[in-house]
Amino acid sequence: MSIEIPTQVVFYKVERAIKEYRKYAQKKISEKVQDITVDQGLILLFLKHYPELSQKEIAALVFKDNASMTRMIDLMVKKEYLVRSTNEEDRRRYNIEITDKGKTVLEKLPPVILENRKKALAGISIDEIEQVEKVLDKIIINCTTNQ
Amino acid sequence: MSIEIPTQVVFYKVERAIKEYRKYAQKKISEKVQDITVDQGLILLFLKHYPELSQKEIAALVFKDNASMTRMIDLMVKKEYLVRSTNEEDRRRYNIEITDKGKTVLEKLPPVILENRKKALAGISIDEIEQVEKVLDKIIINCTTNQ
DNA sequence: CAAATATATTTGATATATCAATTAAAAACA
DNA sequence: TGTTTTTAATTGATATATCAAATATATTTG
Question: In chain A, how many domains are there?
């Protein structure tokens, strides 16, 4: 059985697009904020909106596994963007708080992020984006429904 | 400046879709072929179609950097899917050959890959896919053209 | 209540990602 | 030709990805 080479398949382009966007976004963020990755920025944004999140919940939101999240939070604590304290209602979990240093980062991020999205999506209509999201939703469902 | 939470942005969905597809594809591949990752399979497919590829060229095709490629090929040599030999026309490069064990894998992969794509793209029209590719192309260009 | 099960997090092992520095060979150049 | 500049690949350091096993606490169940 022969198949076309991978470059001809839509997933190849999806992979490339997200990687180029990440590379671009990281470059722009690094110009404005020292020592923060795209994913660390995402974690800060989620924690700001939902301060009660556990590590496991954050992991699910940013599509990482729990082990990775442990190590990412470790690092963010070491770099003083976050502090951990045990949750007294459920001593298996941590309360995770954003430090002042983390808040400073959070102030700088939004304009950069908005600008990045704007640049990456230039010349693309709302309609096209919705169309893409519709297809991506189908792919997600296809890949996650059992069997 | 306030921004919407990341889940509301198309890139979030792109990220999720490609991750779910990778997870699904890896699961299906692992059922049929022992000890091969999606990326290692991709490398085999590219080498089959273009046997002259250098490590650097393969890296570009699968969106990895040279250092990662060195280590991935190291591993694939150790697992006996590939053999390296120096290229006598350009002694900085390697000739990379697929071993018999690698060829056996290559025989098993295509049906699984075709089935995976079929499942992941079920209920999505050619037209929709082309639409998505068009938008992704714009994003890629937006993120890679300077400034 | 005690035992079994489930859950949140951590740890270890191995692979991959990324950046910067290094090495060896090729190509350009003066 | 000898020197400089490029290029392909490697190495080291650090971070992240992934899986399996371990730990500590909660919850369920008999």
Answer: 1
The verdict on residue B47 lying in a domain is: yes
**Residue A48 falls within a domain, yes or no?**
yes
CA distance A38 to A84: 21
Can you read off the two tokens belonging to residue A105? 């980062």
Nearest to A10 among B16, B46, B129 (CB): B129
Residue A76 lies in a domain: yes
State the amino acid at position B147 in one-letter form. Q
In a domain, A1, yes or no: no
pLDDT in tens, B76-106: 999 999 999 999 999 999 999 999 999 999 9
Query: CATH code at B32?
Result: 1.10.10.10
Structural domain range at position A30: 6-144
The Cα angle at residue B144 between residues A115 and B69, in degrees rounded to 5: 120
Is B119 in Cβ contact with A142 (below 8 Å)? yes
CA distances from A64 to A71, A78, B20, B46 (A): 11, 20, 12, 29
Asked if A1 is an interface residue toward chain B (Cβ–Cβ < 8 A), one would say: yes
Q: Do A18 and B18 touch (CB under 8 A)?
A: yes
Nucleotides of D under 7 A from a protein CB: 7-13, 15-21, 24-27
Pairing of strands B82-86, B94-98: antiparallel
Question: B102-130, pLDDT tens digit by residue?
Answer: 999 999 999 999 999 999 999 999 999 99
